[in-house]
Every structure is written in structure tokens, then in C-alpha cells.
Amino acid sequence: MVRNKYLRYLPLASLFGTQRTRELFQYNPTILPTREEAEEVKLFVYDYDAGHYEEHRVKTVTDCASFKNNDRITWINIDGLRKQDVETICNEFGIHALLIEDILSVGQRPKMDDVEGILFCLLNMLYFNESTRTVETEQISIALGKDFVISFQEDGARDVFDPVRHKLKMANSKIRQRTADYLCYSLLDIIVDNYFIVMESLGEQIELLEEEVIRHSNTRSLAHINHLRKELIVLKRNIAPVRELINGFIRSESDLLDDRTTKYFKDVYDHIVQAYDFTENYRDMMMSMQDIYINNVNLRMNEVMKVMAIVTCLMAPATVIGGIFGMNFEVIPLSHYKWGFYISVGAMLFIPLIMLYIFRKRGWY
Fold first, then answer.
1. Angle 143-87-58 (CA atoms, 0-180°, nearest 5)?
2. Contact 270, 300 (CB under 8 A)
């Protein structure tokens, strides 16, 4: 019971998130990672044009082949990755083997490629876990071909595409009137927009931490600063490369991209640049907060040293007087005087009072 009472005050390694550090820097691009096979794969097909819309839940990837070249726009959303399923559907829709490796990769850097008539992009969806106060990532791969878009997600339990699904059900929506490249833009746009939601949650944590550091900073505050700095690393690592990804769509001369869609990708580019600027601002705030913490620690240390110096100075007269009257000389003034003891004790008390008055007058405390 007593041990548990005081353990919460100790700056344990877990408090400073050393496990989180290993998670951030454990990926080695020179080593081919192994992805665990998903226990369940969910396949949803959204087949539409300006006048028709169909939504299907298919059982196997081979069932998706029937939606190929049907003169409609087809969005195939795969939740959960299995190597065999990914290879099957990619071969069916003419997606290159190099892109299959990227889809099955782990910890891949966001990027965009144009390979054999397929525009491919890979990036991460971000979520903020309120319970652990961490930024969680989910890798998503999007392949754009002629009249189809295939998206590969790691986790089927959550995504950010519900607003896109809602627009697909609306007959007069712009996404229903446009080609597959506009659908690809819509998916990228909603992913980037969700970055701001994550940054808003992280910003609230930074604001609370700033108030804590200014009012009553302690060792736990330093642990919180360290924790949030790591989450900002996750944020910056996933946001910064997306600028190049979106810029790749803007500069691409692929026939799959309509000229009218380019301006929409420029809008996404503006958003991702703004998001990157926010991450830089957050980073500057964290650096400033760390400086404030160090300054507070130094200030408290200076206050302690000042008190100790004043106490030492106040004890000096008593030490000197006691030392003088404690010497082993035969003749010491007042040593045989009946009031000598009281005079020496009075001097020990009176001189520190005079010193306190002088210190106070000079504003030393």
C-alpha cells in the first residue's frame, strides 16, 4: 500500500514513453517487413453514374471482377489485407507487382506513383486516441484506373469516408456527375481534412499542458512534454510527405486526370501545406514549453538557494560569537561577568534582526 502510494510520483521509464519511442523508430526500410494477415476481410463495392447508384457487400475478391468495364464508376473498398486477396484483385485490374508490394508494406512513407496506366498513392489516415492521448495511424492505399478506384485499408472498424459515401447516395451530388479521378480527389480530401481534427485534439492537449507548466510544473509535466513531442513527430512524419503526394497529382500528365479536377487537387495541396504549418507551430510551442519548464526549475532552484544563503548569513553572527567565547583562553571579555551569557545570546539574536532589516530594505527577499 505504501509502495503504491509513492510510485505515482516516480519518473518511471513508462511515464516518459520509451515504448512509444521504439514504435516510432522501429521500421527499417532495408528490411522487408512481414504483415500479419487480417482475420476478416470486408469488401464493399459502390457502383454508380449520374443516374444510378448501387452498393454491394461482396464475399470474395473474385466477385469484384464483374464490375470491371461496366461503363460506370466503381469504387472498391477493401477493409483488411490478405496477401492472396490483394494479389488477386490487383492482377484482375492490372495493378503492377511493385504497387502490390507497397500495398502490403508496413510503415511505408506516403507517396504517389504512376505505373502502367494506374495512378497509385499511399498515405496514412490519422486518429486521436482520447484514452491514451496518442496519434494512431492506419495505412491506406488508393489505386486509380480507368473508371475505377480501389482503396485498401488495414482496419475495417473505422475510417473517415462516411461523408463520401453519403454524397454518393445523392443523385445531384458533384461526385456522381464526375469521373473516377474526382472520387480519388474526394477520398484524399477527406483524409487531409481529418488531419485538422486530429491536430485540434492535440492542440487542446498542448493548451492544457501549457497551463500546467506555467502554474505548477513538476517532473510529470516534463513527461507530458516529452509525450506530446513524440506525438508531434508522428503528426509531422505523416503530414509532410503528403505535400509531395498531392503535388504529384497536380503535375501528372496522366490521361486518367481530367483538367477540371486539377484545381481541386490544388485546394487539397493548400490544406496540407496549412496542416504542415500548424505542425511546425505546435513544435515551436513545445520547444517554448520545454524552455519554460527549465526556467521554472531554475527559478525554484534560485529561490531555494536564496533562502539557504539568507539562513547561512543569519547564522554567521551566532557562529562567530559562539566561536570567540568558546576559545580556550584564560582571559576572555565578559566570560566571568554575570550578564555575559545574556549579552552574547542577545547579540546573536540582535545582529540577525539588523541583517534581516538591511536585506529587506535592499529588496533581496
1. 75
2. no
Question: Which among 123, 143, 156 is positioned nearest to 57, based on CA atoms?
Answer: 156
Crossing angle for the helix pair 259-325 and 219-251, to the nearest 10 degrees: 160
3-state helix, strand, coil in the chain (%, to 5): 55, 15, 30
CA distances from 21 to 8, 14, 45, 128, 199 (A): 21, 11, 39, 17, 20
Please name the residue that has the C-alpha cell 508522428.
Answer: 234
Average confidence (pLDDT) over 106-110? 86
pLDDT tens for each residue of 293-346: 888 888 888 888 888 888 888 888 888 878 877 777 777 777 777 777 888 888
The least confident of 16-20, 33-37, 229-233, 292-296 is 16-20
How many CA atoms does the CB half-sphere of 133 hold within 13 Å?
17
Work out the pLDDT band at 10, boundaries 50, 70, 90.
very low
Separation CA 113–CA 96 (nearest Å): 11
Is the pLDDT reported for residue 11 higher than 80?
no
Q: Residue 88, Cβ neighbours under 10 Å: how many?
A: 16
DSSP states of 296-339:
HHHHHHHHHHHHHHHHHHHHHHHHHHHHHHTS--S--TTTTSTT
Helical (H) or strand (E) element with 289:
helix 259-325
Contact status, residue 144 vs residue 180, Cβ threshold 8 Å: yes
Cα separation, 112 vs 268, whole angstroms? 15
Q: Partners of 119 in the beta sheet?
A: 114, 144
The pLDDT tens digits for 186-233 are 999 999 999 999 999 998 988 888 888 888 777 788 888 888 888 898
The Cα 214–Cα 292 span in angstroms is: 7
In Å, what is the CA distance from 18 to each residue of 82, 142, 213, 318, 349?
31, 33, 22, 52, 54
